[in-house]
Amino acid sequence: MKSLLATAFAFLLVSTSCAARESSAAPSPASKTVAQAEHAADFDHTHALWDGILKSHVHGNSFDYAALAADHADLDTYLDTLHAVTGEELGSWSREQRFAFWINAYNAHTIAKVIEHYPISSIRKLDKNLGLTTVFEQPFIAMDELNPSGKHKPLSLNDIEHEILRKRFKDARVHAAVNCASASCPPLRAEAFVADRLDQQLDQQMRAFVNDPTRNKIDPNKKKMRLSAIFDWFEGDFERDAGSVREYLVRWTPEGKHDFIRTAPISYKDYDWALNDVDKDNE
Known about the structure:
The protein has helices at residues 2-25, 29-42, 48-57, 65-70, 73-83, 87-91, 95-117, 157-169, 198-210, 230-233, 235-242, 245-252, 258-263, 278-281, and strands at residues 58-59, 62-63, 217-219, 224-227, 267-268. With 283 residues, the protein is mainly α.
C-alpha cells in the first residue's frame, strides 16, 4: 500500500512539473498579444537605418551602388526589420505610417536587388535570367504574411507597387516617390519617407519631378510638351486624382504654363532603363 502511494505521489510531482514547463513554454493568448504590442511599439517609424543609407549614397539624380555593395550591413538589418512586421502590427498603424512603410520597402528592396548582382548596367538585365518574368514580377521579398493576395508567399516589387501602394492608397504622388533604379525614374529622395512629414515629402517629390526638364519638357516658348512615360503608363491614376493628366500637371507647375499645358499636344519620352549609378554622372 505504501509503495502504491509513493508511486502515485511521484507521478503527481512529475505531471505537475511537466505542466509547469509546458505553461512556461507556451504563452497564453493574452501574453502573446502583449508581446506583439511591445514589438509593434519597437518598430522605428523614422526608418533611421534606411535614412542613413540614403543620406550617404544618394548623389543628385544618382545612387552609389558600389559603395553600398561593399558594405551593406545596415541595409540587411533594415530589411530584416521590414520582414519582421506582422499583419496585425501593420494593421495597428496609421495610414501615413503604412504608406511610408511600403514606399521605403519598395525602394530598399529595389536597391537590394541591384547590389545583389552589381555591377550591372540596368536592372532590366536581370530579366533574362527569369524566363518570361521581369525582375519586377519576381517574388523575392520575404514578407509572406503581408502578401495582398492572401497567399503566404514572398512579394514582388510589382505586388508592392501595384497591389498595395496604388490600390490601397490611391495617391498618384507615389509615382514620384518609388524608384525603379533607372535613369528615367524620379530620383530617389535623399531621406526616408516618414509618416509625420509624408504629405510634404510627396508634394516635394511630385513638384520636382514634374518640373524637371530632363524628365518632362514643358516649354511654351518652344511649343513642346514631352512627358515622362510614367504619365502614359499610369494615366488612370492621374485622371482619378485630377480629372486628366493635363490638370494634374497644372497642380504642380507655375501659373504661366497652365494655358499651354491645357492645349498643347502631348508626346511621351522613351524610358531610359540605364542604371541610375553615380558613374553615369561622370560619363
